[in-house]
Design a protein that fits this description.
The structure is a homodimer. Chain A is built from five helices and five strands; from the N terminus they run E-H-H-H-H-E-E-E-E-H. By secondary structure, chain A is an alpha+beta fold. In chain A, a hairpin with a 5-residue loop joins strand 4 and strand 5. Chain A is elongated. Strand 2 of chain A pairs antiparallel with strand 2 of chain B, so a sheet runs across the interface.
Chain lengths: ~170, ~170
């Protein structure tokens, strides 16, 4: 038997220092979140799993619908936009999640073959009353297609660690 | 060579007659949309594709986060709820899509192992001004976990064909 005590589990690798804390999301800030291609395969796969309404799964049903042809689930557009948000800033920010979304509008159908383009604008910002180390940021996200038409807009609060609070804890 | 003209493409199978038209969604109606099990595999797969924030992908990062342990993306909860909506009534209704969502609230984390339970309540109903054959229904959806806690609520308008308008077109 080895008399040495068991080695402690290795500490998790330290997360990289975020580039953006709450203080950086000042009202008026606009960020370009880049583009996403909408494929037929991904449209059908998402619909089959989460939104199997005939107009999201079958060409004939889609052509007979208000959408005119096969279109992506609105929730798929949300999910694709979330990916652009993660790649565009959240995964380089001290992001702590979100309590919700307002004014989610599916303004035009999103079709396979479309290229989405997402942008965010910071609307307001404040410290969280119940957690002073956390700041809240209200943003508006706007998603356009390759024709420049708005296909989806939404607003919502995000929670971010405060840089000053982190420094205080570290010191 | 076969001199007969090519047979026309078979007509699409007629969609089954919906059980529910706009008229059936009367304010105060409550529908139970059933249950969905949240698996670790599905949680990780959705996060990897659409919401790759560390607290949705890695146990250690999740334990250090406000969520306390690995939790599902809020958009995954929306998508799972949409599936319950489709299975619970939309795919047996004359559903025509939705223009958007209000007051989407992620109230508590959704964890792998949870069982979600969704319900909808009709809040109000009116004919669409620009399309008199279409009726609008505003509903509230409420999603609870196995402890009975609300994990997500949202409200939104759905578009449905009117039974009377359909009958007029058919006659």
């Amino acid at each position: 038997m080895d008399p040495r005590p068991a080695a402690p589990a290795p500490a998790p690798a330290p997360a990289k220092t975020p580039r953006w804390y709450w203080e950086d999301f000042t009202p008026g800030l606009v960020m370009d979140l880049g583009h996403a291609a909408v494929t037929r395969e991904a449209t059908l796969a998402f619909a089959a799993q989460f939104d199997p309404q005939p107009f999201h799964l079958e060409d004939a049903a889609a052509e007979a619908s208000l959408f005119g042809r096969l279109s992506a689930s609105g929730w798929h557009t949300c999910a694709m936009t979330m990916r652009l948000m993660c790649d565009g800033y959240l995964n380089d920010a001290a992001s702590l999640g979100s309590p919700g979304i307002e004014n989610l509008r599916w303004l035009k159908p999103v079709y396979p073959g479309d290229t989405l383009h997402a942008r965010m604008e910071v609307l307001e910002s404040r410290v969280m009353n119940s957690r002073p180390a956390v700041g809240l940021v209200r943003s508006r996200w706007r998603v356009t297609n390759q024709a420049g038409d708005d296909v989806m807009t939404m607003e919502g609060w995000g929670m971010f660690a405060r840089r000053t609070a982190v420094a205080a804890v570290g010191g």
